[in-house]
Amino acid sequence: MNEDLFYQGLIKLIDLERDWVPSSEETSLYIRPFIIATDPYVGVRPSNTYKFMIILSPVGAYYPEGFKPVSIYVTDKYVRAVKGGLGAVKTPANYAASLLAAEDAKKAGYTQVLWLDGCEKKYIEEVGTMNIFFVINNQIITPALEGSILGGMTRDSVLKVAKKWGLEIREDAITIDEVYAAYQNGTLQEIFGTGTAAVISPVSELKWNDKIIIPGDGKVGKISQKLYDYINGVQYGLRNDDFNWVTEL
Ligand SMILES: Cc1ncc(COP(=O)(O)O)c(C=O)c1O
Question: Does domain 3-59 have CATH number 3.30.365.10?
Answer without folding.
Answer: no
